[in-house]
Write a structure and sequence with these properties.
This protein is an alpha+beta fold. It has two domains: 154 residues, GAF domain (Beta-Lactamase, 2-Layer Sandwich); 53 residues, Arc Repressor Mutant, subunit A (Orthogonal Bundle). It has a five-stranded antiparallel β-sheet, sandwiched between helices. The longest helix is centred in the middle third of the chain and has 25 residues. The protein starts with a helix and ends in an 18-residue tail after the last helix.
Length: 235
Amino acid sequence: MVALARAAGDEPTDRASDLTSPFVAAFGVTGAAVSSLGDPLGVETLSASDARSARWEEIQLDLGEGPAWQAAASHRAVLEPDLRSAAGEAWPFALSALIAEGLSAVYSFPLSVGTIPIGVLDLYDDTTHTFDLAHTSDVRRMAAMVGRTLLVRGIEQAATQGDAAAPPATFSRREIHQATGMVIAQASVSPDDALLMLRSHAYSTGTTVDEAAQRVLDRTLTFTQPTTPRGGPVP
């Protein structure tokens, strides 16, 4: 957790593994990767602990299917400790390709800030049943830090590049405070994350935070928790 907290801090880093290597060290898996899978950050691999993990992640992104996509769509973790025994009906091509590339197990965790989907964290292993499923809660806690870090970095990068849609870093208007309170109630998040969700919506829609806040107050924009279908992947 300390290593991840350091990587998630304010100091920039050029290491592609800065957000994933702590997971490898903490949970003894072969590798890890983090990708965004749509708005507001696009579709790309944002961090990988090593070249093999980057390749396994690339397969899923290129095919548009796999446990990463399933985890993101269902808002639940997809835990496959033995890919050769996995059903994989939802991603047959990815299953075959991942096995062919030497992958034996994969554990995919959705990343989000409140109700804003960010992407997915994938833990990869070239042996079966290495990851202790009892540690899934620990992974979720660390993944929450990663999701928030990625969203903040994306918004701040847009601001640095002069993106007109990127809002300023601080706000004081009454409407924004009121809207933040409503988002807290809707999404059950902290005040900081509620404001970050407003910033993310403004960033992804090309509007201002003022406009996003007004829509929340007008009740034309809500941040209620997504519903999760019954059954499906392991939570």
